[in-house]
Amino acid sequence: MTDVDKISMEIVNPRAAGVDIGSRSHWVAIGQGPNDFKEFGVYNEDLFAIAQWLKENGIKTVAMESTGTYWQSLYAVLMSEGFQVILCNGKFTKNIKGKKTDIQDCQWIQKLHSIGLLSGSFLPDESTEQLRTFCRHRSNLLASAASASKKMQKYLRLLNLRLDVVVNDICGLTGMAIIKAICNGEKNPERLADLRHHNCRKSKEEIAKALHSNGRQDYLFTLKQELEMYELFQAKIALCDIEIEKMLNETIDNDENKKQHYIEKKAYKKINKNTPKNIDLNLMAYQHFEGVDLMAIEGMSYSTVLSLISEVGVDGIKRFPTAKHFANWLRLAPNNKISGGKVLSSKVPKGSNRLKIALRNAANAIGNLKDSTPLRDFFQRINFRNGRVSAISATARKLAVIIWNMVVKGVPYHNPEEYLFRDQKKKLGLLKRIQKQITKFELESTDFQFSS
Question: Which residues contact 102 (CB under 8 A, 6 or more apart)?
Fold first, then answer.
């Protein structure tokens, strides 16, 4: 028998184990023999029993599937016990022949890990992970508050109170003042219209016309309930903002390199109402990324920067060797399928994480810019050729590349056609009108000499 008749698989990770994660039990394999596996429970003592059994058998590295959230407790225990743990995507371990059982799964994972065919998933550092918990919880609270807001609008409409017609946001200053007065028993449309904020575009008379109720008590009761829920969620969001600020300050205060950086506030940078209150995210992001001004990119909002800090962090971005790796992890790079030299497909892979969604929202904002900028022009070219969805994905990928180069390589963002804020636009427009008038009337410098 010649060597071509044999194919040997080299052991890349000796002393390796595989774990099939479950909701009720974990199956652990340390080899391919009939007695090289064992079932454990999911309680805390069972997790430490797994670690002890692995130590007794000389295991150094462990691979496990990222099944739901069931893996997190075992992962933390194994890391604390000194094991090298690889968390892998289930799609890389599911191609097993024959009947699928827990025993086969754990031994298949152990075999793939031993011969080096499994790659680990990205996991942020501990401080970033804690901040991510607060930010994701805050996003869930915002979604619940938005749901309560929609239900308030529904019951107002059923009460024939068309507040949504006369105000842009029923949860704004005017809207909330009127809703609270309605829930407190006020029925007079004129008195309700007197609660109008001075910035509201509609007049008191028009607002009063929209506030004639049909008096249904069942709808009024449900409106009160939804108002209480909305205020409760807003209170929870405020408490979450305090914890986020505490985490950001703690990260910056513990690093002298971060503390030394300072940047002025950006005038007229739009602050969304859902942005964390009382937190200078412009300064904190500048310090967190060690002097990198990500807010200089047009279309980048405070929520996008906060998502970047909480989902990957500065150390997490630096773990990607190239910008292409970072874009690919975000699932923003096309997945080219080539056969016979022909491109069969180049679609962006399915799947989204919160940072990808944030970058796509920033790309959509860039597409809505009225002024011409390089990123906006790039968006419009792709939009004209392939449609808006493709333009959003392509611009989001370009943003990911720009961010990686800024954070890892320290390359500042340069816009040859500098983006102008609102006050700068007014000044430039005034200068252009003056110059036009000077040219029209053929004025000279001597014509501007005035006698006292």
Answer: 20, 22, 25, 27, 39
